[in-house]
Design brief:
Organism: Streptomyces anandii
Strand order of the largest sheet: 1-2-3-4
Oligomer: single chain
Shape: globular
Distance between the termini: 36 Å
Number of helices: 1
InterPro entries: DUF397
Pfam families: DUF397
Largest sheet: 4 strands, antiparallel
Radius of gyration: 13 Å
Protein name: DUF397 domain-containing protein
């Protein structure tokens, strides 16, 4: 399957990025420096995760 991968402009060209693609109602995530490992999820689950990130629930991981 051919996916159109996108990444955040905040990741620059460092290879430190998470890339995202969408196809047939699924959301796919992969690390830019290890593109063979792909995680698949739904929009609802990704939305819940991103809301948690925005609310600071995962800030302890960024330290």
């Amino acid at each position: 399957m051919e996916l159109h991968w996108r990444k955040s402009s905040f990741s620059a060209d460092t290879g430190s990025c998470i890339e995202v693609a969408e196809q047939d109602g699924w959301i796919f995530l992969r690390e830019g420096d290890d593109p063979d490992v792909v995680v698949r999820t739904t929009r609802r689950k990704l939305r819940a995760f991103l809301e948690g990130v925005k609310a600071g629930e995962f800030d302890r991981f960024a330290r």
